[in-house]
Amino acid sequence: MPADERFAVRRESARASVPRPLTAAPAPAGVPLPPGLALRGRHATGARRPETPRGSGRGGSGSRTPRTGRGGGPRRAYERARRAWDRPLTAYYVILGSSLLITVLGLVMVYSASMIKALDISKPATYFFGKQFLAAVIGGGLMLIAARMPVKLHRGLAYPILMVTVFLMVLVQVPGIGMSVNGNQNWLYLGGPFQLQPSEFGKLALILWGADLLARKQDKRLLTQWKHMLVPLVPVAFMLLGLIMLGGDMGTAIILTAILFGLLWLAGAPTRLFAGVLGFAAVLAFLLIRTSPNRMSRLACMGVSEPDPEGGCWQAAHGIYALASGGWFGSGLGASVEKWGQLPEPHTDFIFAITGEELGLAGTLSVLALFAALGYAGIRVAGRTEDPFVRYAAGGVTTWITAQAVINIGAVLGLLPIAGVPLPLFSYGGSALLPTMFAVGLMIAFAREDPAAKAALAMRKPGVRWKTMRRRVKKRSSGER
Fold it and tell me: What's the pTM value of the predicted model, to 2 decimals?
């Protein structure tokens, strides 16, 4: 057989061996096919369902979102931290926790920095620590009272606190009643080892009274006029500043000025008005510094690293020495060398330098982080409220604490002139600690007044939680288990 014929036979046999698809018989006209037969016929005609790639269905690997590898961990941690920070009670806990940590760490450092000073004046080593601990206990009670007081009661106390503070500041200037400490006539003698500095309470009085004043004017829509924004806020603030400057306390006057500017900024003062008040205050400060040799010498000590041969800038230079000798983790608690008579005021104005010497860079950064957390939480409270009094008061307290901390730490670092102000909640001084802890309680009360925080705190009460659980449990018949 020729090759062409053999190839044709093989091709026909191969076609005959392939099974043909079943086809439905043509139905007669007008007679519908049964469902099963129609389905078989549809499949038999070769119409195939589109193939789905393997793993693309439910539970398959194709539906999963590709992982980001190593970057997923930090991003997930960031999202968790952001969600935690956005919770209603975050500001409440941050203010409470950071303020208590600063106060406790301050007590430890006051004891460590003041023991040599106490022995030098023939007192027990715990003399200054005992007084500071008593002030912290009283301040803790004031903080608790302020945190539990409603906002209306805080507004009601604004005028009484202002009048009492002005009366005490006038009483300081009466000969025979006021006392002079380190050249400043700003103290009242209370008997025994206790003294009181009324100018420290002037900061709290200005904040409460100024916040109430601006809130009432905002309700009446009067803050759009510059004279209503300035009067009587600025004249009363200048009256307090004059009483403070009569005693020579430039540092407290700077803090009070910062509070005034903070209130004006929160009230939405125009740029020209704000710049005018700031320029007037700057000119007044320049004249006060220029006419005082003591203040000029403090200004000249900025950035020095060694005292001059005549003994000037001694405190500023030894503050830098204390910080430089601390290293990363410090020489150890209680092992400071500068507190043995080299550094003046180691437990008050320059306690941050002793902290750097004994706890090192780690300790100083921890203190800075606590103050940063406290300030940021205060800004959050002021920014999220719709009550104008709460916004002005929280903003004023935050301005007070952060400005005073910056001025104190800047003086220790040699970046600012030595103003003689204590580090809030940290340095020795009951007159400064009491109003500051009351102000912290004020911010805690404001954080609790937020509607979302109120609901979260209500859910944490045992009675409310039990009632909520009872509502969620369905009633069952006696036969169910």
Answer: 0.79
As given in the structure block, the two tokens for residue 449 are 């007044």
CA–CA gap between residue 130 and residue 109 (Å, rounded): 13
DSSP assignment string, 222-244: -TTSHHHHHTTHHHHHHHHHHHH
Contact 228, 222 (CB under 8 A): yes
Quick one: DSSP state of residue 62? G
- Among 259, 272, 269, smallest CA distance to 228 is for 269
Q: What is the pLDDT of residues 148-197, one digit of tens each?
A: 999 999 999 999 999 999 999 999 988 888 888 777 788 888 777 788 89
Q: CA 325, CA 343: separation in Å to the nearest integer?
A: 13
Q: Which residue has the tokens 């092992």?
A: 335
Of 456, 452, 443, 460, residue with least CA distance to 147: 443
What is the residue-wise DSSP string for 279-347? HHHHHHHHHHHHT-HHHHHHHHTTT-SS--TTSTTHHHHHHHHHHHTTTTT-S-TT--STTTTTSSSTT
How far apart, in whole angstroms, are the C-alpha atoms of residue 455 and residue 126? 45
Site of tokens 């800004």: 379
